[in-house]
Amino acid sequence: MMKHRDKRVKKKVERWKKVLIVAIVLVILGAGGYAFRKPLAVMAFDLFLSGQVEQKLEKSYAPLEGEEPKPVSVVKQEKMEPFTALLLGVDQRGNEPARSDTMIYAVVRPEESRVLLVSIPRDTYTEIVGKDKEDKINHAYAFGGEKMAKDTVENLLENPIDYYAAINFEGLRQVVDALGGIELPITKDIVNKQKDHEKFTIKAGKPLYDGQEALNFVRYREDSDFNRTKRHQVFLNAIVNRVMQLDQVSKIPDLMDMLGENFKTDMTPSYIIDLSKKILLGNPPSISGFTIMGEGFRKDGIYYDAADEEDLEFAKEMIASWSDPDTTPEKLLMPDDKDKAEAGTEAEAQTESLERSN
C-alpha cells in the first residue's frame, strides 16, 4: 500500500514540475520577455522538432554523382563560414520534362545573416559543360540534371559552388498555402493573356497571396526575362520573411513533408538544421539581389540572351567578395556599387569633355 501511495505522490510531483516549467515559459513570454523569444524558439525546436525535421530532410538529401559529400565537421564549427549554393527553381507540369525556370547563384554569410542572389536569365547563351555545345543555360538541367547545371554555372561565373538546392514550384505552392499566404508587392493587376500562355489574373493590393497566386507571380512571362528574374528574387524574399515569423516554427515538419519529392539538395540534414538555428538566432536575413542583364539575339530562328560582359565581370567580382570570409561587412561589394561606379565614370568623362572644350 505504501508503494502505491509513493507512486501517486511521485506522479503528482512530476506533474507539478511540468506545470511549473510551462508557467515559467509563459511568464517569460508574456511578461516582457521579448528578448528571449528567439532562444526559446530554438530550444523548443531542439526539444520537439529537430529529430522530425532531420528525418524528413533525409528524404531530400541527394549528393551529386561523382562528388564527395561535404564533411560534417564543418557544420560543428562555432563560426559558420560563407558558402555558395546554386538555387534551381524547377517547373514541371504533368508529364512534361522538367526544366530549370530559375537559376540563382547564392552566397550566404551566416554570421551576418546576409544573402547575395545573382540571377541568371534562363535564355542566357553559354557553353553547356559536358555537352560540348553552346545553348540556353537552362537547357543544362534538361540535358544533365543538377550536376550539369552546377558545372555550367560554375564555368560561366568562374566561381565554385558548394551546394545545390532544387525546388519544384508545385511544392512551393503547397508551402505558401500552409504558411497562410505571403506578401507580394503587386501594385497593378498582373494578367497572363497571350493565346499560347496559361490564362490567369493576379489582383493588386492584396495583403496576402495564396500558393496559386504566388506560383502565377513567378511564372508570369509577358513583360521581360529581366523582370521575371527579379520576381523570382522577390518571391524567395517573401518566403523567407514569412517562415522567419516565430509563429511558423511549429509548422516546419509539416512544410518538410509538403516539399517531399519536390525538394532535393546535397546539404546534409544536420547542416541545414544548424544553419536554420543560426539564422533564427541572428538578425532577419538581409537579401541583396543582382541580375545579369543580356541583349537578345536570334540564331537559327531561336531566341537567346547574350550576357552583358560588364554585368558578368561585376557578378564574378561580387561573388568573390562575398565568398571571402576575410571580407568585412562594410567592404562587401554590393549590387548598387556597379551603378555608382558607372555614374562616377560618366561624371569624369563629362568633366574631361568640359575641360577640353574650355
UniProtKB/TrEMBL annotation:
InterPro entries: LytR/CpsA/Psr_CW_biosynth, LytR_CpsA_psr
N-terminal signal peptide: none
Residue ranges, compositional bias (Basic and acidic residues): 333-343
Domain Cell envelope-related transcriptional attenuator positions: 99-243
Lineage: superkingdom: Bacteria
Pfam families: LytR_cpsA_psr
Residue ranges of the region described as Disordered: 320-358
Family affiliation: Belongs to the LytR/CpsA/Psr (LCP) family.
Name of the molecule in the record: LCP family protein
